[in-house]
Amino acid sequence: MRGMTLPAWNTDDYNSPQATTYLRQIAATGARWVAFTPTWYQDRVGDPEMHTTDETAADDSLRNIIRLAHDAGLKTMVKPHVDLTKGGDRARIKPKDPDAWFAAYERFITHYAQLAADTGAEQLAVGTELAGTSQDGPHWSKVIAAVRARYKGPLTYAANYDEYQRIPFWNDLDVIGIDAYWPLADQATTDPAQLRRAWQPIADQLAAFSGRLQRKILFTEAGYVSQRGTTTAPYSWTVSKTEDDAEQAAAYEALLDTFDSKPWWAGVCWWMWDDWPDSGETAKNLAYTPHGKPAEQVLRKWWAPGT
């Protein structure tokens, strides 16, 4: 997968006039896939269910963006998220009543499984970084079976980098998904060689894990803000207030150079392309987007030679 994530933060983002432009820009990098992230919310970590808000992409907008992506020659992954209304790490979600929560989650995810089937989406993630629930194998296996009854395409789960080894249901899925935010350095660096060396033991561990489970590994997310120190904490939107697009580009280079030739690696879906107009909380010059930065040229070098 040569992929890019285009998240939604509001009901009508995916109906935005900007949608076609973003998809065209993504395709121009050499990307062949784009991921979409309709998000439901919980008020508290122990709540028994999740719900839509005015930040949840409307179904008609999700259908629209999938159609536009296909028109642009891009394959699509639907990757629904569950977040907390007041922010914080979704990995902290740990329901007080697991039976009630998983019943609600099954309704949530099968809704998107049916939408993915109806729109011809080429891949579906059954969950993202829900580490507070993901060790509950029986409940997750039941959810996955319900998803497969509606959607016949390949399935993955987007485990955080510190979660994937504890997932008991990989055999129920087609691809191991990892959100690949491993810290790679103790201090800021723009040296791709140093970052490649940091990746090597991680790559060896992933190769062995893939071999044991007989599944390829997809980086369902990977990304770096263009801030000094991003390689020390790739998962952070606020590493520093100092712009450093050279460190971002070095991180892109090191990841692709390390993994692109690995036979067990299924690819990467970068986090993320541009924010929608007026929706970004982080200034573009400091944000995850590679658009208009040296990191975009790294992508073009690897994915679209000669452009």
Task: Describe this structure as you would to a colleague.
- It comes from Kitasatospora aureofaciens (Streptomyces aureofaciens).
- The chain is 34% helix and 17% strand.
- Strand 9, helix 6 and strand 10 form a beta-alpha-beta unit.
- It has one domain (2-303): Glycosidases (TIM Barrel, Alpha-Beta Barrel), CATH 3.20.20.
- The strands form two sheets. The chain has an eight-stranded parallel β-barrel, surrounded by five helices. A two-stranded parallel sheet has the order 3-5.
- The mean pLDDT is 97.
- By secondary structure, it is of the alpha/beta class.
- The chain has seven helices and ten strands.
Indicate the topology.
Elements (H helix, E strand, L loop, with lengths): L1 E6 L11 H10 L4 E5 L1 E4 L16 H13 L3 E4 L2 E4 L13 H22 L3 E6 L8 H12 L6 E6 L14 E5 L12 H22 L3 E6 L22 H15 L5 E6 L23 H10 L4
Parallel strand pairs: 1-2, 1-10, 2-4, 3-5, 4-6, 6-7, 7-8, 8-9, 9-10
Helix pairs in contact: 3-4, 5-6, 6-7
What would you give as the CATH superfamily?
A: Glycosidases
Proportion of residues in extended strands: 15-25%
CATH topology: TIM Barrel
Rg, Å, rounded: 18 Å
CATH class: Alpha Beta
Care to count the β-strands? Answer: 10
Report how far the terminal alpha carbons are from each other.
19 Å
Mean pLDDT: 97
Order of helices and strands: EHEEHEEHEHEEHEHEH
- The strand line-up of the biggest sheet is 1-2-4-6-7-8-9-10
Report the sheet with the most strands, covering strand number, pairing sense and barrel closure.
Answer: 8 strands, parallel, barrel
Count of DSSP H/I helices: 7
Number of domains: 1
Shape type? globular
Poorly predicted runs are none
Helix content: 25-40%
Based on secondary structure, the structural category is alpha/beta
User: CATH architecture, please?
Assistant: Alpha-Beta Barrel
Protein name: GTA TIM-barrel-like domain-containing protein
Pfam families: GH113
Organism: Kitasatospora aureofaciens
